[in-house]
Fold:
Amino acid sequence: MKKGILSLVLAIGILVSAFAQNKKEANGYEFKMEKEIKTTPVKNQFRSGTCWSFSALSFIETEILKSGKPEINLSEAWIVRHSYLDKAKAYVRWHGSLNFAGGGAFHDVTTCIKKYGIVPEEIYAGLNYGTEKFVHGEFDAVLKGYVEQVVRNRNKGLTTAWYRGFQGIVDSYLGEEIKTFTYKGKEYTPKTFAAEYTGINPDDYIEVSSFTHHPYYTKFILEVPDNWAMKEVYNVTLDDFIEIIDNSIKMGHSVAWAGDVSDKGFSWRKGVAIIPDVEYEVTSGTDKERLTGLNTKQKNEIIYSFEKPVKEMEITPELRQKAFDNYKTTDDHGMHIVGIAYDQTGNKFYKVKNSWDVDNIYDGYIYMSEAFIKYKATDIMINKKTLPRSIAKKF
Structure:
């Protein structure tokens, strides 16, 4: 029996070792961390468009850790609930001329905390509809259909019941409003929990972007569909945008990142996001030889194979602006930057926490190159005290 157990243990060890090796070989990149911020475990937004809530709350949870408080799992559904309720009012007031969907922005999270407080995940899971994870297809569609009918205004005047009806749908799917609750032996309201337990001040957080269609060092309303609340961001040069991210990480604070992940340089399976130089065939040696004579599709298959680090595009403000203006860079995802790393050739990357579970080679994280950050970010959220003084003076 002991011999059999030993053989089993050895076999398992070999399998684990082989799996680890395969994970490593699945990607030709090797990363060395320069600075990494302690954060909370990776979560899973599953089949919902709530990345903005997951990423911003991951950022807030990390800020709580930074302050010396214990790890906490905050409720994404609480944020979704209140954002949808506020969004419905805005949608009706705008006669339906407003984006109404499951998406949102980082400021929706800080606004919610400021207006309604926050609660732990265990107090408000938001799963009143028979699944163990977020599945929001029906939920989003039902809410959209409801407000569309309200806006059609068949009565030639809104009833006093429409908002209560909307709230009733949200209550049925996510759960009713929490007035008071007990956490670790103490009773709180959502607002007292936010103020006393988390210690988070929503006014400490600002959003920053970098586009040329507005003057630098001013604030402007970011023109993306999920900015339904019409909130402003600070506009800086592209170089300052990167400096702000780097300075925040170096000061021990993480960064919430919003941007576009539809580019083929983004590989969740490989755990890498890059912007390869499409003129890669001009390089010398074996790389040039293996690409010469191939058609564009064949070249792209090699360039985007992630077999090893490749030359990346130089991202300029003009290139970034063109991608935004032509809908090549949109606000389709939110994630959470928690560190700075370098690959084996010395190129700078950022370690980024996602909310797609832990089923890629980096257990739920992806390494984004500086070029990808520059090209595909729409905006970031930071703790305003990490804004370098030299940049703050320019506003």
